[in-house]
Design goal:
Blueprint: H1 2-19, E1 25-27, E2 44-51, E3 69-73, E4 83-90
Antiparallel strand pairs: 1-2, 2-4, 3-4
Length: about 100
């Protein structure tokens, strides 16, 4: 009975660890303020991050808030401890006010 109880504890503990496993993005810099810039002076910035979690990170989509920006990102799976990027680029085209 004692061996069964120890085995049960081990299964519960190991199951609990794997159930909480997840990727975690840690950004080197999470904010970039370009301030005000003219339409003919496009701006860009690369957000670098590391997967500090214990599962593979897969990014399916990156969205921007307006039509004046485009975004690109690391499309391959990012293993724990490995780095990736999300790239922001303004096209210099502002629609509306």
């Amino acid at each position: 009975m004692r061996k069964f109880f120890l085995l049960l504890i081990a299964v519960v503990l190991l199951g609990g660890v794997s159930a909480n496993a997840q990727p975690v993005m840690k950004f080197e810099q999470s904010i970039c303020d370009f301030g005000t810039f003219p339409e003919d002076a496009p701006q860009s910035f690369v957000f670098k991050f590391t997967n500090v979690g214990d599962e593979t990170l897969v990014i399916h989509q990156v969205s921007t808030f307006c039509n004046c920006t485009v975004a690109n990102f690391t499309k391959t799976p990012i293993e724990p401890g490995k780095a990736g990027v999300a790239f922001f680029d303004s096209k210099g085209v502002f629609l509306g006010d």
